[in-house]
Amino acid sequence: MNRTHRIAQVLRKQKVDALFVTPSADLMYLIGYGGHPSERPTILAMVPGRSPVLVLPQLEAPRLQGRADVEIRSYADGEDPYESVRTVVADPSTRVNFAISDQAWAGVLLNLQELFPFASFSSASSLMRELRMVKDLDEMELLHEAGKRADQVFENVAQLRFTGLSESELSEELNGLLSDVGLARADWGPIVASGPNSASPHHITGDRQIEHGDAVVLDFGGVFEGYQADITRTLHVGPPDSDFKEVYETVLKAQQAAFDASRPGNTAANVDRAARDVIDGEGFGQYFIHRTGHGLGLDSHEEPYLVVGNGLTLEPGMTFSVEPGVYIPGRFGVRVEDTVAVYKDGPRRFNHATRELQVVH
Ligand code: ZN
Ligand code: ZN
Ligand code: ZN
Fold first, then answer.
1. Domain coverage including residue 152
2. Where is the domain boundary, 87, 110, 132?
3. pLDDT tens digits, one per residue of 320-358
4. One domain for residues 22 and 168
5. Which ligand is nearest to the CA of 189?
6. 187 alpha carbon to ligand 1 midpoint, in Å?
7. Pair 232, 318 in one domain
8. What is the whole-number distance in angstroms between the Cα of residue 201 and the centre of ligand 1?
9. Ion ligand 2 — residues with CB under 5 Å?
């Protein structure tokens, strides 16, 4: 069954009368076309019992030529796109429960609210998550391939001489290597955080020069046929001292514990707990200042989130990052991140780059 049929079933079950999907990974997931947000709206309108209608600017309609599964209604500049949307919904007086993409511009929602004054709008993402959280085999393969390509980049970057490079220069090197292996630019990163900067998990890569004695956190990824890679390794420039080694070993153990916990039946919170127990046990709990991971797929951050309080039960097909870290302010940080997939018989990694500490020069 194709994805638009599956979401139509969800709409019926949840008694949603119409769904509006604007440019986003949700749109890509449903029809293989992600569109792009613009002042010329693109809206996929789905009403159970009729085929999906994509309203989009005339100049972008050629991108969807020959599609039989989606009715294309293009509008010329100067025409009102919302008129097309109105006729899809047909009888707005009996249809009142609508859902709209979380990523929709407020302007689109305001126009729809004006068009359908009796309707109430809820989050389309919470309908879509049921489907998108559990990957099919094709999606798993693409994520695995994306992961392997990122591994290759790590192996190549670890050959470089780090001393004397600035964070930005190293980031440019990473971008070059990522494009060499066929990964398209992600909408984030790479994060290159050196020395004391490595203690900031989302450090903004800057001009600091990497020196002997630095820890360097490299967090990078890219997109392969729509699917994201996301890997972090922490290297050391020259031999590390015993404090660094202790933290590094702790983070590795935490990462392994969270990986081992990533099995069907456990909750997302259990996985977070597994990493946190190790880090707490070694006395570094106050320095682990973020959740253990996030789902990964068409979006670089999506459900499920491995976070305290998330009682969601893991199922085969779920894919997420496992990325505990310890960040000692003013000194150094360590994070190790792999993409992990849940299978019936347990977890598998989609990254295989070595997690042993790499000492570079
Ligand atoms: Zn990352
Ligand atoms: Zn991540
Ligand atoms: Zn593999």
1. 137-360
2. 132
3. 999 999 999 999 999 999 999 999 999 999 999 999 999
4. no
5. 1
6. 12
7. yes
8. 10
9. 230, 321
Asked if residue 143 and residue 103 are part of one domain, the reply reads no
- Separation of 347 CA from ligand 3 center, angstroms? 11
Instruction: Tell me: do 115 and 142 sit in the same domain.
Output: no
Distance (Å) from CA 353 to ligand 1 centroid: 14
The total of other beta-carbon atoms located within 10 Å of residue 132's CB is 22
Give the distance (Å) from ligand 2 centre to CA of residue 323. 7
- Number of separate domains in the chain: 2
Ligand 3 centroid – CA 140 distance (Å): 11
For residues 296 and 321, the answer to whether their CB atoms sit within 8 Å is yes
> pTM for the full model?
0.92
CA distance 253 to 247: 10
b/e code 241-277 from CB counts within 10 Å (16+ = b): eeebebbbebbbbbbbbbbebbbbebbbbbbbbbbbe
Considering every ligand atom, which ligand is closest to the CA of 151? Answer: 3
Residues 20-71 pLDDT 10s: 999 999 999 999 999 999 999 999 999 988 899 999 999 999 988 888 889 9
